[in-house]
Amino acid sequence: MPRISLTPPQTLLNRIGAWYSRRTYGKVLDPGLAVGHNSRVLIAYVKLERGAARWNRLDPALKHLAVVASAARINCSWCMDFGQWTAGPLGLPLDKVAQVPQWRDHPDAFTELERRVMAYAEAMSETEPAVDDESFAALVDRLGEPAVVELTAVVALENFRSRMNSAFGLTSQGFSDACAVPAR
């Protein structure tokens, strides 16, 4: 149960946000409703997300695996739910994304680079970040500095999202239900 009301004031900004969310995602996103209680925070959050959507130096699949690994590490069920749903358009197999929280138990499901990216995302997501020089250098060697900067920024952004959603008490909104193969 959310710790914050999901019925923010019906301001013009919140009504536009709800319209955009329904149009883009098929429903109004709970994090948007929670943040809608403070218009300045909402505006800054939307600007940040819109800017991050234009980052393009890192492979989108690697970026997605990093985001899901970070969300899993922080234990944000809302982000995990949404992350499962958004994997489809990237061409990531749903069973692969579902294995991200336990990726170490499924080494054959992921490439060596994917495992490095997820390990980095987890290390960044620790309460005291645990990124080491060797892991960082290996990623720079494989991806290049611009992509590692983007990887670092997207994991930091997911930490922001996940920690806010967890603090607000937001849980699954049913996005991954749309991904499931219906029973026969």
From TrEMBL:
**Residues annotated as domain Carboxymuconolactone decarboxylase-like:** 44-122
Annotated Pfam families? CMD
- The lineage's top-level taxon is Bacteria
Q: Which InterPro entries match?
A: AhpD-like, CMD-like
Q: Which Gene3D superfamilies match?
A: AhpD-like
Kindly give the PANTHER family that the UniProt entry links to this protein: 4-CARBOXYMUCONOLACTONE DECARBOXYLASE FAMILY PROTEIN (AFU_ORTHOLOGUE AFUA_6G11590) (PTHR34846), CYTOPLASMIC PROTEIN (PTHR34846:SF10)
Q: What is this protein called?
A: Carboxymuconolactone decarboxylase family protein
